[in-house]
Amino acid sequence: MQQVDQMRKGTTTLAILKLLADADQAMHGYQIIQALEQRSRGEFLFKEGLIYPRLHQMEQAGLLSSHWEGTPGTRQRKIYAITEAGRQALAAELAQWRTFSQGMDRLLGLAG
Amino acid sequence: MTVDDVLQQVQAGLHLEAETEHEVLEELRGHLEEAVAAGMARGLTSEAALSQAAAALGIEQTAIELQATHAGWGALEGIAAAALPVIFALVLRWFIFAPDGTAAAWRELPVRPALAVIAAVVLLVPLIRFPRRRYALGLWLIFWALSLLTAIWPTTRW
Fold it and tell me: Which of A44, A52, B26, B45 is the most exposed place for a label (fewest CB within 10 A)?
């Protein structure tokens, strides 16, 4: 169960970094959740409330930056953007992911 | 049930610094309002949409994870904020009094680059490290208060 949790956390971080890198614009939490669900076409269900702690952890780690959008008195939203450190982490994570994925394909005899 | 009711349930599981708690809850408020608007656009009533949004959020688990994410950082930040001005004031004092232990060097201090360097470092380090600027400014003021105390009572042993 712990392994599943670790895998979920790792893949959520990777998915958020890739989404923000591809979007090339800052997004707020609700937009991120919607975009992730749309990308996964319902294959992955992200627990909505767990995305926010994950975003905060990524911000603390310097992978994301954030600021509040909107003026006082109107609806304010905290929006997130990927940082340079986040882009570097994304490149490293993607390389690891490809290595793992290709290794599993070979192990299972799925490689063409 | 209203958005505030849902936020109160989340807040019941949080024991964070007031400003952090306020920011976290405001972010969740934005999320719930967006989710309710989307639910109503799909034809749900506002109550049903909010009920669905709260269930999708997972109030209890969200509060546990948010508490775990922010609690440790606050403690570390507090320790660093308390220790840094003392450390830097001691460094400044070391520059002033070393090596002969007299306070005469105070008069030369304004023209020494060491003063400007330490004053800049003691402000810049917290500004870069701490998410809130007022912490850095408060820390800077404490540093100067401690440094002035050593100037007023230069014979005080630290």
Answer: B45
Chain segment B31-43, per-residue pLDDT in tens: 999 999 999 999 9
The answer to whether residues B79 and B151 belong to one domain is yes
Please give the distance of CA A71 from its chain centroid, rounded to a whole number: 27
Residue A13 CA to residue B68 CA, distance in Å, equals 17
> How many residues does the structure list for chain B?
158
pLDDT digits (tens, 9 = 90+) for A27-69: 999 999 999 988 888 777 777 888 999 999 999 899 999 999 8
- Per residue, what are the HEC states of B60-129? HHHHHHHHHHHHHHHHHHHHHHHHHHHHHHHHHHHHHHCCCCCCHHHHHHHHCHHHHHHHHHHHHHHHHH
Residues in B closer than 8 angstroms to A60, CB to CB, are 69, 73
Asked whether residue B87 falls in the same domain as residue B131, the answer is yes
Domain count, chain B: 2
**Residue carrying structure tokens 């220790």:** B83
Contact B16, B25 (CB under 8 A): no
Kindly provide the ipTM of the predicted complex, given to two decimals: 0.83
Nearest CA in chain A to B52: A48
Whether B26 and A56 lie within 8 Å, measured CB to CB:
no
